[in-house]
Design goal:
alpha+beta; Alpha-Beta Plaits; Trna Endonuclease, Chain: A, domain 1; 7-stranded antiparallel beta sheet; 14 strands; about 20% strand; globular
Length: about 425
């Protein structure tokens, strides 16, 4: 039990053996429709003598068994099929649309799509929705019995962590500013930024503390934000360092159904409960706007190059040292000139307010802001920065970034190259 969350120990031989036996029992569901398996699972759960075993058996089905569609779906992806059918109906001028999905006019559309995809038109009605949860078949992993059970326990722990983080108020990660072996906390800071989390990074006496807002700290509590916090936390668990600790304040059901705040603490010693030794932190994808902007600038200006994670910028505050990682650092190949570039996409109001607050703390750094025009902000929102080196560019969509990139390149050339 960690905090008030029960994370299972994959190093416990008795627990691994118990889970392996459960998995052996569940293999009778191999190949069954998920909807048909529910009754069998209910009978198994009813025979379990303890509440912990009942819960664990149900979790194993949800988290361990991967859902694969029927064999026929190897021929075509149902989502692609649905799209092709509606596109064919649209191309037919709407004549195929009617009350009966498979009226003669629609049969013509199905024949057209079937010929294009190389499948039997008679099977299309069943194939269109064969990827729905109830239609999928259960498939269990193969491998050495104890290894499969150990990995199953880690998967269950991760899902329990995900569920808890959806009710988090705040997470605080404490990590050394300098670590051996080239492992850098900047990767985690960048990961939080890529995931769109609201956070402050504070440097203090050789340590860096990331204070990350949870979904229950936001005006609009969202499952999506909670899932992003989980992805960040999983990245922390996969982090190569050994001296970090993560405290998470979350709401749990208390006596009488009243919510109570509890703190869950994770550290590097618990890593093996969530990830195996050979798992490494994966990079989080950059936003489409940022990647498009980088490519536009690269084509327009070989004299300047944009670098991701190009700087860790200290922000001037009273009483503590905040850190910021801008989206890009533009550097001139012929001089030492450096410009910070930040793309402010379409974010919720709370995120935007924290972003503006940090930008106002940048002081006399040369900064170019590329702002989504859909945001309810204006140039006046940034006037109070006191930074004469701040330039703003507004864009209407991803395609409009090409125009903005051209304007920025002109200004960059005028600076130093």
């Amino acid at each position: 039990m960690i905090g008030r969350m029960n994370f299972l120990d994959p190093a416990s031989p008795s627990l691994v053996d118990r889970v392996a036996s459960m998995i052996d029992d569940l293999r009778v569901l191999e190949g069954e429709r998920a909807a048909d398996a529910e009754g069998v699972l209910a009978d198994m759960v009813a025979r379990d003598t303890s509440e912990d075993d009942r819960r664990l058996r149900a979790e194993l089905v949800r988290t361990l068994a991967s859902h694969r569609p029927p064999h026929v779906l190897e021929l075509v992806d149902p989502e692609d099929l649905r799209r092709a059918i509606f596109e064919a109906a649209w191309d037919a001028g709407g004549a195929a649309l009617g009350d009966d999905l498979f009226s003669p006019a629609r049969e013509t559309v199905c024949d057209t799509v079937a010929a294009r995809l190389g499948v039997d038109a008679a099977e299309l009605p069943a194939m269109m929705f064969a990827d729905t949860p109830g239609e999928r078949r259960l498939e269990f992993p193969t491998g050495e019995r104890s290894e499969v059970a150990g990995e199953a326990l880690r998967t269950v722990n991760l899902e329990r962590l995900r569920t808890g983080l959806r009710r988090a108020v705040c997470a605080r990660l404490r990590i050394p500013a300098r670590t051996a072996g080239g492992v850098s906390y900047v990767r985690l800071l960048w990961r939080a930024k890529r995931l769109g989390l609201m956070f402050d990074a504070i440097e203090d006496a050789g340590w860096v503390v990331l204070e990350v807002s949870g979904p229950y700290a936001l005006f609009q509590k969202t499952t999506m934000y909670g899932n992003r916090l989980y992805e960040f936390t999983r990245g922390v668990l996969e982090y190569g360092g050994s001296e970090w600790s993560l405290e998470v304040d979350l709401l749990r059901a208390g006596p009488g159904g009243r919510e109570a705040l509890c703190t869950v603490t994770l550290d590097a010693s618990l890593r093996s409960r969530f990830v195996s030794g050979d798992q490494q932190q994966t990079d989080t994808g950059r936003s489409g706007d940022e990647e498009a902007f980088r490519k536009y600038v690269a084509r327009l200006s070989p004299a300047w190059y944009l670098q991701y994670e190009g700087a860790l910028v200290p922000l001037g505050t009273q009483g503590r040292r905040l850190l910021m990682v801008p989206d890009f650092v533009a550097r001139c190949s012929a001089t030492s000139e450096e410009v910070l570039i930040e793309i402010i996409g379409f974010w919720k109001q709370e995120y935007l307010e924290k972003k503006i607050e940090k930008i106002r703390l940048l002081g006399n750094r040369r900064v170019m802001l590329v702002v989504n025009a859909r945001l309810a902000v204006s140039r006046e929102d940034f006037v109070g920065t006191g930074n004469d080196l701040l330039r703003l560019f507004f864009y209407d969509g991803r395609e409009d970034l090409k125009r903005v990139a051209g304007e920025i390149v002109e200004e960059l050339h005028a600076l130093a190259c």
